[in-house]
Specification:
It is built from 15 helices and eleven strands. It is an alpha/beta fold and 420 residues long. It binds guanosine-5'-triphosphate (GTP) and magnesium ion.
Length: 420
Amino acid sequence: MEYFVEQALSYTECLNKIRTKYGERVTILYHKNIRIGGIFGLFAKDGVEITGFTANNYAKNVNVATPASSIIPSSEPKKPLDFEEEKGRLLKMGNAAKKEESSRTKIIEEVRSIIKEAVSTTRDTAASEQDSHPTLVRLREALGLNDFSQNYIQNIIERCKKENSFENFNNYEAVEDKVLEWIGETILIYQEAKIYKKPRIMVLVGPTGVGKTTTIAKLAAIYGIGNSSKPPISVRVITIDTYRMGAKSQIEAYCNIMEIPLSYVEDYDDLKRTIAQYFDEVDLFLVDTIGKSPRDSAQLGEMKQLLDACGPQAEVHLAVVASTKSSDIKEILRQFEPFNYRSVIITKLDETTRMGNVISAMSEKGKRVSYITDGQKVPSDIQKASVVRFLVNLEGFHVKRSKIEEHFPHDDAEQIQWRK
Ligand SMILES: Nc1nc2c(ncn2[C@@H]2O[C@H](COP(=O)(O)OP(=O)(O)OP(=O)(O)O)[C@@H](O)[C@H]2O)c(=O)[nH]1
Ligand SMILES: [Mg+2]
C-alpha cells in the first residue's frame, strides 16, 4: 500500500493525474480545496488536493477502502468531504488497520505454533508407536537378556528405527538378522601379525583369578606343542608369581607336562637378565603376572615398572572374565590402560550364556579381542576370537550360522586344531 497526495486545478484533472500515475486500483481517502501556485501568496489559483492510497491485496483483504470512499469514482464526488470528519475517520481506520495487522501477526504466530506442535506430536506419536511395536519390544527384551548395556541397546533400537520402515518391523526375522549383523560389526577382532621380530614377548595381565596362568599354559601348548596347522616353535614361560606357593606349583605342573621350559623372576633386573639370556634361542616368551586389583593403582604402577624390563617389543594382553558386569569391564579396561595392552582375552566363557556385557563394554572402549577361553582344560579350552563365536552364544536370538559366517568370514585354518 502506498499513500499519495496529488494536486491539480480541478478535481477531474487531479483524478486523471492519479489514474495516470497509480493506475485504476486506487482508494481516495479525502480531498480538499487548496490554493495553488503564486508568489508569496499572490496570484495563486484555486485547486484541489486528493489524498489516497494505491489499492492492493491488503486493501482487498482487510477492507480498509470502504470507509473513506470506494475505489476511484468515475465521476465527480457527490459532496466534498469535511476535513475534520475525514481526519477522525482516517485515524480510526489507521487504528483499525493497526489492530488488524497485529491480530493478523498473532494469528499467523498461533497457526505456526499449532502446526509446529502438530508436527512434533505426529513425530512423537509415530516414535512412541514405533517404540511399542512388538518387534522392537521383543528386540529390547532379547538384548536385555544378554546383558547388553542400556546405551548399546538404545543405539541398536535407534538404528532400527532409522534404517527400517515401520512396515518392515512386521518381519521380525529380517530385523533380527540385520541386528545380528550390526552387533557383529561392533565386535573388534585382534589380528595377529603374520610375521614377528624374534623373539616375540607376550605378557598376560589382569585382575586376580581371571585365568591368566591357565591361559598362559594353553598358549604355551598352542605354540610350543604346535597343532595340525602350525609347527611348534621354541617357547619359554616366565613367571613373576614366585611368592605364592600354589601359583608356583600350578604353572610348574603345566610346564612339566608339556615339557616347556620355565623361568622364575622376582624383579626388574631378574626379568631383563632372563630375557637377555634366552633372547637368541627362544621364539616366544610367555610372561605370566600376578593378578592385581584394578583399583590398586600403586600395585599396578609397580608391576608396570617391572614389566618395562621386557622392552618395547613386548606385547601385553589383558585377561577379563566373560561374566563381569559391563560397568566393571569398562573400569578394568580403563585401569589397565597404562600397560598399553594390545588385545583382551575373554576367559571363562563357559560360565555364562550372556555376552552382551562384554560386547557392549569392548565396543564402547574400542578394544579388540584376541582369544576366548571356555573351560579349565589345558590345552583344549581356548580359541582364537571370532565374531561368529560371540554371536552364536547370544541368548534369545535365532542365529543362522551359515548366514553369519558368510557375513563375517573368518580364517578357519587359523583356528586351533589339536593333534589327536
Ligand atoms: N570355567 C573356567 N575356568 C577357568 C578358565 N580359565 C581358568 N579357569 C579356572 O579359574 C581359576 C583361576 O585360574 P588361574 O589361571 O589360576 O587364574 P589367574 O588369573 O592366574 O589367578 P591369579 O594368578 O591368582 O591372579 C582356576 O580354577 C582355573 O582352572 C575357563 O576358561 N573357564
Ligand atoms: Mg596366576
